[in-house]
Amino acid sequence: MNRFRGAQRTFLGLFVALTACSAPADEDRYTAVADMSDLMAHVLEPNAQVYWRAVGWIIDFEGEHELRPETEEEWLAVENAAFVVAEAGNLLMMDGRALDDGPWMTMSQSLIDIGRRAIEVAEARDEQAVFDVGAEMYFVCTQCHATYALETLRPSDDRAQESDAGS
Predict the structure, then answer these.
(1) What stretches of 46-131 adopt beta strand conformation (E)?
(2) Residue 65 forms part of a structural domain
(3) E strand or H helix at 103, and its extent?
(4) FRET pair for 128, CA 20 to 30 Å: which of 10, 32, 55, 61?
(5) Bridge partners (DSSP) listed for residue 58
(6) What does the pLDDT profile of the chain (167 residues) look like in tens digits?
(7) Residue 58 in 3-state DSSP?
(8) Residue 68 placed within a domain
């Protein structure tokens, strides 16, 4: 038994040394495929929309209609969307995408944090919590947009109109 333990330690030490020697520098390790606009349009926004549309209420002339996942597949779609939102925070912090080391990084971390909470409540199948966390997720997104992408705010938001007037 001790003979194998020693061999395991030797192998582990050799593996760590070889891995460290052959590992590329951090800046060479990752390659962004999408620019910021494409990342938002094709990764973050569609998945945030899946999460936001999962639970809610619509009141119209026919009455009140409840939106909620009905099947296991629908709940899995909500979970998957939450995972993508959380991981998108990491993508936003990559070299070449991070716009600064201050508020951008803080807001990206906030996206990860709210994404983790979104995963947790989706896994718990807690409809009210999905709705509530979705509202918090929306706040995280709009706070970032209010700082870095005023043109993407809703037309009724005065900050977007002020930005257009200043251009």
Answers:
(1) 56-60, 63-67
(2) yes
(3) helix 103-123
(4) 61
(5) 65
(6) 444 444 444 444 444 444 455 545 555 688 899 999 999 999 999 999 999 999 999 999 999 999 999 999 999 999 999 999 999 999 999 998 999 999 999 999 999 999 999 999 999 999 999 999 999 999 999 999 999 998 887 655 565 555 555 54
(7) strand
(8) yes
Q: Is residue 49 part of a domain?
A: yes
155: phi then psi, degrees, rounded to nearest 5: -55, -25
Domain that holds residue 151: 29-166
Long-range (24+ apart) CB contacts under 8 A made by 27-34 are 27/95, 30/94, 30/95, 32/91, 32/94, 32/96, 32/97
Quick one: DSSP state of residue 124? T
Cα separation, 86 vs 115, whole angstroms: 4
The verdict on residue 19 lying in a domain is no
Domain count, the chain: 1
Q: What is the CA radius of gyration of the chain?
A: 22
The reported pTM is: 0.75
